[in-house]
Specification:
The complex is a heterodimer of chains A (411) and B (482). Helix content of chain A is 18%, strand content 33%. Chain A is built from 6 helices and 29 strands. Chain A has helices spanning 16-27, 64-77, 141-149, 166-177, 196-203, 304-322; strands at 3-6, 9-12, 32-35, 51-53, 62-63, 81-83, 87-92, 97-102, 105-110, 113-116, 120-122, 138-140, 158-162, 181-186, 210-211, 214-220, 227-232, 245-248, 251-254, 258-260, 291-293, 332-336, 340-344, 347-348, 354-360, 364-371, 376-383, 389-393, 405-410. In chain A, strands 6-3-2-10-21 form a 5-stranded parallel sheet, covered by helices on one side. A 5-stranded parallel sheet of chain A has the order 12-19-13-14-15. In chain A, strands 24-22-29-26-27 form a 5-stranded mixed sheet, with no helix packed on it. In chain A, strand 8 and strand 9 form a beta hairpin. In chain A, helix 1 (16-27) packs parallel to helix 2, helix 1 (16-27) packs parallel to helix 6 and helix 4 runs parallel beside helix 5. With 482 residues, chain B is of the alpha+beta class. Helix content of chain B is 30%, strand content 23%. Chain B has helices at residues 10-19, 58-77, 94-109, 120-126, 148-161, 206-212, 284-297, 344-363, 389-398, 414-422, 428-435, 448-459; strands spanning 2-6, 25-30, 46-47, 81-82, 86-91, 115-119, 134-140, 144-146, 165-168, 172-178, 181-187, 192-194, 197-200, 221-230, 241-243, 254-257, 263-266, 270-271, 307-317, 324-327, 334-338, 405-407, 412-413. In chain B, helix 1 (10-19) packs parallel to helix 5. Chain B is globular and about 60 Å long. Classes of the chains: A alpha/beta (411), B alpha+beta (482). At the A-B interface, strand 8 and helix 3 of A face helix 7, strand 19, helix 9 and helix 12 of B. The complex binds flavin-adenine dinucleotide (2 copies). The site of one flavin-adenine dinucleotide has 34 residues of chain A, from helix 1, strand 4, helix 4 and helix 6.
């Protein structure tokens, strides 16, 4: 009764990263199966009905669903086998073997290479440790977005947004457009968490106040949310006495960060301590040979273009594994130096171009990214943590590499 | 004879379950929209060993008995029970050693078997992550953990199968008394329930309910306990229930594995200045306190990334610090089962037997007829999460909904959610407590809307009427602009 399937490359997760991986692997001529746990592929793109996707990958400004549609269409042309509503219950990373539950039945898949593209989840309210009541009316932004954009329902009447990540900013505008009153966006950092263009287009254009260095310190409401206490905070995020103010709202939308989904996908895969995602090399390979990862489960990326580009590389390398092409599995550490927060990749494999994505630890008027061991300096102006700095190092420069490479940002 | 039980927490539920085996008519009345959502919802969920209650108290008498009765209960009702054992840990100082041996002596006085003081090598072997500061511990092998609301729900389901009538979302506000007997109860909705006997098992409200019938009971005050729930990953660091030494304020702040693989830290012990039985809010200090205490027992267990949520519960306390289980001396047919503080969960099965045998049959000389034999009932729902691949495959073949996983974190299928609705879930929380859907690390971020749609479809109500729990807790409030 348990069907046993076989494939070349198995892609787990059908968001931008997974679709791009499936496509590139398929184009390289190997058999590809993609497992998606939802009813359809697209991932978070499906609910991002705003513009701003694809400027680099497709050189055209698309909405999320449009971006997804292009990849879906191409996948169909390249006969990628998609199994939707499939839940991966167990992965044996060593043997590339997975157990899957789906409405169609229970089955196992024996693959030759696996690409993990499981995206990120939102940090839940409970994890924020905000004291007070536990009323209805508190939503993670993605849930609110889903309800509004795909179910045509509104969460409430008066909202406050906690966290100025992109989803929070986008939702401030969306809820306003759909007729809710948005009292503001509250951010504990002294700068916005999302892209500058979103601060301008979603808040400033709609006169929605952005409260920087502020946070919600208490939640009240017996049944539905009634009010929240907002306070200014100091550099250590401690509330400053005398700055507290109550906001009467029935809806609190949280955009308090995304967490790479790495759980239950194999115990033995190395996790990057800062990114909290799979530690991959520039071939997108994880610490286990033949297991690749790309997209938001590696690090939270700001643009879908980067995610798709990484997925594409992951698919190519997975295909090469299947085709037994000669690949080195050399992993030379890329080490964080000063001012570097999120950083992809964690390792360098000299055979592939090195695409670096990094987030600054703090905003800087200007600075220089330095990779001393590679003799590389990249100056930049106006860098903010919300916008990734990215550049490519040609693989020719990597050939002689033996020792770890340090990357730092000097002011 | 018609017996009415006020309160559908674990105490009312197990009373109903036990009474349903006699020749009586039963009604259970719960004022919340679902059962088991009072004190029974937020506690440490420990089936205590029975060694630390004051000898001679009702608590001591009923705790160990209850602990032993859980075995049968788990078998009959299919409720989760894991006897993972417990350690009360002590440092190598004369005071702490003294306290530990006092505890052992108290246990022996309470007639508790299976406890002994163990030393470091044993401790290290069983709890390798425990702080190295602790050198000795009182080990109790029969300490268990369970899922309290599941016990209440399963017991009520069994009672209902045996003929009990279950009412909910409608509280008792008073009643008619004549000639020293309660004749009928009046509910919030205006409904009148005639009755021959009333059992007041109203949890935090026992005093209020008794008062409304002019029955005097010990004054209740509230003591709050705050908790932090940790991700399943934390369960790799602890195997048993870990207690510090008990103090004046109670059993202390613990590290407790949960039956579904998480870990809970807490509780605090805070006397509430006023009677605020619905205030289960948490505070910054409380959260901090339990995190620090957890880290003191098991260093680094409360990692910021592992914190899933915080919650709080209230204990009904009295000056006497003991359960109050008495038939009224003013009303002939009114029994109060009140002040059921810790270890009420553990004692609950024994409390039910005590009420029947000691109060109803002995003191009140009621003839309940002969007790029918308890049948092993297979009420337990199928759980994908707890089944092997073959079993799941067989299920999916018959019903594809077993293969549609709705809650990804806890692996709960659509079929399980539909079954929960069939068994009485009417809200997001009702589903959550019956199936664990939405209980995992994403806290419903991914699945809440799906569950809402299933509720809407199965109950045939618009999405705008889907509630999180009580009336007024809607999730969807209006339509987008068209
Ligand atoms: C609100 C919002 C606004 C954004 N705005 C922009 C923008 O304007 N411009 C831009 O360029 N980028 C934007 N982004 C970023 C970009 O969309 C994302 O970074 C990108 O889509 C992430 O793709 P992914 O494939 O890594 O993850 P996801 O899209 O999350 O895809 C992961 C997929 O894997 C599936 N999955 C997960 N676990 C499993 C499993 N165990 N088994 C099977 N399937 C699984 C999921 O269901 C999902 O379909 C935005 C993101 C958000 C959330
Ligand atoms: C912090 C904390 C930790 C604890 N830890 C443990 C532990 O580890 N082990 C242990 O054994 N015990 C523990 N306990 C004790 C245990 O949880 C309680 O003793 C037990 O849950 C009490 O159950 P109950 O049925 O009496 O109360 P409840 O669950 O509160 O049930 C009473 C019900 O009556 C209903 N009700 C009230 N008024 C009315 C009315 N007028 N009409 C109709 N219905 C009404 C309420 O809504 C409620 O559902 C702990 C308690 C707390 C607070």
């Amino acid at each position: 009764m348990i069907q046993q399937l076989k494939t070349g490359v198995l892609v787990i997760g059908g968001g931008a990263a997974g679709m791009a991986a499936a496509l590139s692997a398929s184009r390289a001529g190997v058999e590809v199966t993609l497992l998606e746990r939802e009813e359809k592929t697209g991932g978070v793109l499906n609910q991002c009905i705003h513009h701003g996707f694809g400027l680099q990958f497709y050189r055209q400004e698309l909405t999320g669903p449009e971006f997804a549609y292009r990849l879906q269409n191409e996948m169909a042309q390249h006969s990628v086998k998609i199994i939707s509503e499939s839940y991966v219950r167990h992965i044996d990373t060593k043997n590339k073997y997975v157990e899957v539950i789906s409405p169609e039945g229970v089955f196992t898949i024996q693959a030759k290479a696996i690409v993990l593209a499981t995206g990120a989840r939102e940090r839940p309210f409970g994890a924020l440790q905000i004291p007070g009541d536990r009323p209805a009316g508190i939503y993670v932004a993605g849930l609110a977005q889903r309800m509004v954009n795909l179910e045509n329902t509104l969460p409430g009447k008066r909202a406050l947004i906690l966290g100025s990540g992109d989803i929070g900013l986008i939702m401030a505008r969306r809820l306003t457009l759909e007729g809710m009153e948005v009292l503001g966006v509250v951010e504990r950092l002294p700068y916005a968490g999302g892209l500058t263009r979103n601060v301008v287009q979603c808040l400033e254009d709609y006169d929605i106040p952005l409260y920087l260095s502020h946070t919600v310190v208490e939640v009240r409401g017996r049944r539905r949310l009634e009010r929240v206490l907002v306070s200014e905070v100091d550099d250590n995020f401690k509330p400053i006495n005398g700055t507290q103010k109550w906001f009467d709202i029935d809806t609190l939308v949280l955009s308090a960060g995304l967490i790479p989904q790495v759980e239950d996908l194999g115990e033995n895969l190395e996790i990057d301590a800062i990114n909290k995602g799979f530690a991959v090399s520039n071939t997108c390979e994880t610490s286990v040979t033949g297991i690749f990862a790309a997209g938001n489960n590696v690090a939270v990326f700001d643009l879908v273009d980067y995610v798709a580009a990484e997925g594409w590389i992951a698919g190519q390398n997975a295909a090469q594994t299947v085709q037994d092409k000669k690949r080195t599995s050399k992993r030379i550490p890329l080490i964080r130096g000063k001012n570097v927060g999120i950083l992809v990749p964690s390792y360098i494999t000299p055979e592939e171009h090195l695409r670096v994505y990094l987030r600054l630890r703090k905003p800087m008027d200007k600075g220089t990214v330095v990779l001393k061991e590679l003799n590389i300096e990249k100056p930049f102006q106006y860098g903010v943590p919300s916008e990734m700095i990215n550049f490519v190092v040609n693989r020719d420069k990597l050939q002689e590499l033996k020792k770890p490479v340090r990357i730092e940002v000097v002011e | 004879m018609k017996i009415t039980i006020i309160g559908g927490g674990i105490v009312g539920a197990l009373l109903a379950y036990e009474l349903s085996r006699y020749a009586v008519d039963l009604v259970v009345i719960e004022k919340k929209h679902d059962f088991g959502l009072g004190v029974t919802k937020a506690n440490s969920a420990i089936v205590h060993g029975g060694y630390d209650d004051p000898p001679g108290s009702l608590r001591a008498e009923l705790c160990y008995k209850g602990n032993q009765l859980y075995e049968k209960l788990a078998e009959s009702l299919g409720i989760p029970l894991k006897r993972i054992g417990s350690f009360v840990v002590a440092r190598d100082t004369p005071e702490e050693m003294e306290k530990l041996s006092e505890l052992l002596k108290r246990g022996e006085k309470n007639g508790v078997d299976g406890i002994e003081i163990v030393e470091k090598p044993f401790l290290e072997k069983h709890e390798p992550h425990l702080s190295k500061e602790y050198k000795y511990a009182l080990h109790c092998t029969h300490t268990g953990i369970t899922e309290p609301w599941t016990v209440a729900l399963a017991a009520l389901e069994a009672a209902e199968k045996a003929g009990a009538e279950l009412l909910r979302g409608d509280g008792v506000i008073g009643g008619e008394v004549s000639k020293g007997n309660v004749r009928s109860l009046e509910l919030e909705s205006g409904r009148i329930i005639e009755t021959d006997l009333v059992i007041n098992a109203a949890g935090l409200y026992y005093h209020e309910v008794a008062n409304s019938f002019g029955v005097s009971t010990p004054q209740v005050y509230l003591r709050k306990g705050q908790y932090v729930l940790l991700d399943h990953k934390a369960s790799t660091m602890v195997n048993s229930v870990i207690f510090p030494l008990p103090s004046e304020k109670g059993k202390g702040k613990l590290v407790v594995p949960t039956v579904d693989g998480g870990v809970v830290l807490g509780p605090t012990s805070e006397n509430m200045p006023d009677f605020t039985p619905e205030d289960v809010s948490t505070t910054l200090e409380g959260i901090k306190e339990v995190i620090e205490a957890g880290n003191e027992l098991i260093p680094n267990i409360a990692r910021p990334n592992w914190i899933v949520k915080s919650f709080a519960g209230l204990r009904p306390e009295t000056q006497e610090k003991d359960f109050f289980i008495e038939n009224s001396n003013t009303l002939k047919n009114f029994v109060t089962v009140g002040a059921i503080r810790s270890p009420g969960l553990t004692a609950a099965p024994a409390i039910a037997r005590y009420v029947i045998e000691e109060i109803l049959e002995q003191r009140m000389s009621l003839d309940l007829g002969r007790q029918k034999a308890d049948q092993v009932r297979t009420l337990k729902s199928f759980r994908v999460n707890e089944s092997d691949l073959k079993e799941i495959a067989a299920r999916v073949k018959d019903d594809e909904k077993y293969g549609r996983i709705i809650c990804q974190c806890n692996q709960v299928s659509e079929a399980e959610i539909i079954e929960a609705i069939r068994k009485g879930a009417r809200s997001i929380d009702g589903i959550k407590f019956r199936t664990r859907a939405g209980f995992g690390r994403c806290q419903g971020g991914f699945c809440t809307w799906k569950i809402a749609k299933i509720l809407s479809r199965e109950l045939n109500i618009p999405l705008s009427e889907v509630r999180v729990n009580e009336e007024g807790t809607v999730l969807f409030d209006g339509k987008v602009r068209v």
